[in-house]
Amino acid sequence: MTAERPEVEAAALPHEGANVQPAHTIVIVGAGQAGGWAAQTLRNEGFAGQIVLIGDEAHPPHERPPLSKAVLSGAAAPESTRLMKPEAFDALAVHWRPGVQVRRIDRAARQVLLSDGAVQPYDKLILCTGGRARRLAVPGADQVPLHTLRTLEDAQALAPALRPGRSVVVVGGGWIGLEVAATARQQGAEVVVVETQSRLCERTVPAEVSAYLLALHRAQGVRVLLGAGVRGFARAADDHLEVLLADGSALACDTIVLGVGLVPNDDLARAAGLACDGGVRVDAQCRTSDPHILAAGDVAVAPNPWAGRSLRLESWQNAQEQGMAAARSALGQAVDYQPLPWFWSDQYGMNLQIYGMPTPAHRVVQRGDPASGSFVLFYLAGDVVQAAVGANAARDLRFARRLIELRKPVDAERLADLGTPMAKL
């Protein structure tokens, strides 16, 4: 059963009494989670002007995390992913343009040119264009069906293949790949995960967390191949598919899923001459290099003091909160968006959460035993908690977040002691 989604802190919700600018037109490009929250926040802050919400998908603003879990397994209907009920969306009185793409941004004229030939002027433009699933440029990639998971249509196309008696190869041992593998295994399919790196989620978590994830999946019957490169894809004589590995071997299967990362949709911004670096560069006010254009969500590269560098945060938290921050910034409000990174994943009923940016240089303090199913790993610099990773430990992690944000020194022995309530630290 999928674990419940962690609750959003009340402080992240829209506030009243804002300094609202005179009515004008704000165009939001991208009608996903970031774009949907931007539109809602504009109205919550009292903006009475025109809001134009342009999305290349046909669906109203929705969340993507359930696509690899509840929606993919059939436990939840696609409509359950919507950010708001239809009547609440209608009450926003936005000019919604579904199934339409922005072809070009004319910065000088402050207008966008749409795929249907229309021209839409703007006073402020918020780019929430997100990203697309990365593909593999290897032989056979255009000769066999390769599933990715980014849209509702992707989930609906993949779901029928996840059933008993079917075999699935997931290429990529990152978060999407592992969540798809977990859902497929729980649906009764045989699953192999192929990861080119030496450990799972190598780019985002320390080695001890990778080891925990590896043990979790293998205990569920998933075959995990580490350090295994993919040299191509093919269709076998018996109409099975084959994943051709770099060592010369091949994996026969019924279905292939690619979970090899996200490509930010910054093409539109690049063509308009905005500063980009693996995404659209923004400041703490969500402003791009053009003062009339902002960006938020998976496409935005922002300075983050918790990481000590600029980065894109591909998370549910950031899509929502940066979309809200960009809306407020567009209204001329004072915004200083520098969030503590927070990520979560549900696999086999296990809820894993990460606060901050753990690194190999940190000292690790363990609270609880992973074998028990509930634990927290704290990452310290000196006696200050910098990050925390935990499984099925939502309460302790809420206190861990406070410790990180307060930068309060702690006693490592008390931190590790289950007999010492986290509230006392």
Describe this structure in words.
The protein is of the alpha/beta class. It has three domains: 10-132 and 262-330, FAD/NAD(P)-binding domain (3-Layer(bba) Sandwich); 135-258, FAD/NAD(P)-binding domain (3-Layer(bba) Sandwich), CATH 3.50.50.60; 358-424, Enolase-like, domain 1 (2-Layer Sandwich). It is built from ten helices and 25 strands. It has helices spanning 33-44, 70-73, 86-91, 152-158, 175-186, 207-219, 267-271, 316-330, 394-406, 412-416; strands at residues 25-29, 50-55, 95-98, 102-106, 111-114, 119-121, 124-127, 131-133, 167-171, 190-195, 223-226, 230-235, 241-245, 250-253, 255-258, 262-264, 280-281, 293-295, 300-304, 309-311, 342-347, 350-356, 363-367, 375-381, 384-391. The strands form seven sheets. Strands 3-2-1-7-18 form a five-stranded parallel β-sheet, covered by helices on one side. A five-stranded antiparallel β-sheet has the order 21-22-25-24-23. The chain has a four-stranded parallel β-sheet with strand order 11-10-9-15, with helices on one face. α1 crosses α8 (316-330).
Globally, the shape reads: globular
Distance between the termini: 32 Å
CATH homolog superfamily of the largest domain:
FAD/NAD(P)-binding domain
User: What integer is the average pLDDT?
Assistant: 93
State the oligomer.
single chain
For the largest sheet, list the strands in their spatial order. Answer: 3-2-1-7-18
Could you estimate the helical fraction of the residues in percent?
10-25%
CATH topology heading of the largest domain:
FAD/NAD(P)-binding domain
Keywords: FAD, Flavoprotein, Oxidoreductase
Cofactor: FAD
Pfam families: Pyr_redox_2, Reductase_C
Domain FAD/NAD(P)-binding: 25-323
